[in-house]
Amino acid sequence: HGFCVISEEADFFYKCTDYYHPQSERGIAWDDPGIGIDWPLRDVSLSGKDQQNRRLTEQAVEDLPVYEG
User: Which stretch of DSSP H or E encloses residue 51?
Assistant: First the structure.
């Protein structure tokens, strides 16, 4: 998930379908041009963990999640 607040105040609700499973956690660089999100802000606040996220093209295919539906 990613979100950007440009107002003075915001409520953010996040729903999970299961308990936290750290082995399933993944991240992509927020400003990765390959995913094509035109964020309205450039000066952002990221956690130390999120600052380490790499671009999608820099991640090994076997490390990416597989979704079946």
Answer: helix 48-51
Q: Using alpha carbons, select from 18, 24, 27 the residue that is nearest to residue 55.
A: 27
Tell me the DSSP string of 18-49: S---GGG-----TT-GGG----S-SS----HH
User: What residue has token string 């090994």?
Assistant: 60
CB 53 within 8 A of CB 67: no
67 or 31, greater pLDDT: 31
How many alpha carbons fall within 13 Å on the CB side of residue 40?
Answer: 5
pLDDT for residue 59 is more than 80 = yes
Amino acid at the residue 59: Q
Instruction: Please answer whether residues 34 and 69 qualify as being in contact, where contact means their C-beta atoms are separated by less than 8 angstroms.
Output: no
**Taking phi first (over 0 means left), then psi (-120 to 50 degrees means alpha), and beta for anything else, what does residue 22 get?**
alpha
